[in-house]
Amino acid sequence: MGDGGEAREAGADGNEDLGQDAPPEPSGPDDPPGGRRRLAARLRKHPLLGSAVALVLLATATTVPIVLAGSGDETPCRKIPAATRALAKDPAAATRALDPGDDLARFDAVRELLVYEHPCGDGGEVLGRIVDAATRATGTENPHTLAQARSAFAVAAALDGVELPDGMAPWVARMLAQYVVDQNRYTGSDDDAVRPAVPAGSAGLDDEGWTTYGRFLAPGEAHAEFEHTQPYSDVEADPEQLVAELAKDPEAFAILYSAERAWLAYYLERLDGQGRDPDYRPKPSKGDYETPDTYWVDSDLEHMADRVGALMKYRTRYARDGTIPDVTAFDASVRRYTPGVYLAHTTQVTTRPPMAGIAARHAGRVSGDLMDARHQLLSVVSFWATARKVPKARADAMRQAIDDRYVRALWLTI
């Protein structure tokens, strides 16, 4: 984290014995044929100077001035106007201010509102609170609205390549945790993602019980389309690049790491006793090849492992290049901000609650080294598989899919 400005490109209960974490022989999902082959393939400055500069910022329905202030030889800072500060305490107004619209017509206004070089005082935290207010569901039992989901897209796009000011990162991490299913789905920009967010009706299951928007989705919830892109536009919402910036902050790191582990537990407890998605009923293939009915489950598990592996790879990189000057102190801070371990229920869960409740689930006592992410992931799978009496071959395949992708994600960065 820094003073702000443009970023440098970045290269339920506790249980003391959660099971063995050593996976057997590698295995993984085969490529599905047909209309989903394309999707399956995708899965694989200067500081401002001066004593007073008048800028105009659109916040809600009014314009507010941004004041540039500085003293002596210190780097000048920009004050957050009172009208902008007020958005942090008014979620409805914050959502209106950060909603770019379906056509992104207001995206430039969103970027103007959020991207500050050297905000004064607690300005970074204020901006983060505005992000949280605009994108957070009104309660853990309530689904995200379309405007909130579009705002989440706009935040990720506005902060793409931006070095966040001090105090902002934890709040942006909370936003990604609120949309953990949507941001896990991201593998790159996609021309088929034609809007920054989709309404609940567009995310429903098809006649095979499948949707591109993920598994176990809450009815009535809108979803951010971080893959959305427009021709001849530089607007890109890349959660992976945003995570690279957030991983510098121990509290933000802990929030993201916790959200991924909570999502894993949430996901496992909704699978059937064979480790399959109970909603997915693929039709018989007309060709010689039959798509495994566990294909999309294994792909989702791989995405979770990718995200956790990415966090750990950035931790390693930043420890090496000095961004994290003391990795021991950093890890201690992560532990302080971490609620605990997330275990899947020992009986199958059939509810489909909104995304906001996933990271808010009950956490138990951590077993082993929290920063040994491989152990933390695989031990949760082992605990679930043992409790649910999942066939050994299937449990082994799931562990191997996670292990392979975690190691790959870690290796790709170090």
TrEMBL record:
Superkingdom of this protein's organism: Bacteria
Region spans: Disordered: 1-37
Compositionally biased tracts (Pro residues): 23-32
Residue stretches spanning the membrane: 46-68
Keyword check for Transmembrane: yes
Record keywords, A-Z: Membrane, Transmembrane, Transmembrane helix
Composition skew (Basic and acidic residues), residue ranges: 1-11
UniProt name for this protein: Uncharacterized protein
Biological source species: Streptomyces asoensis
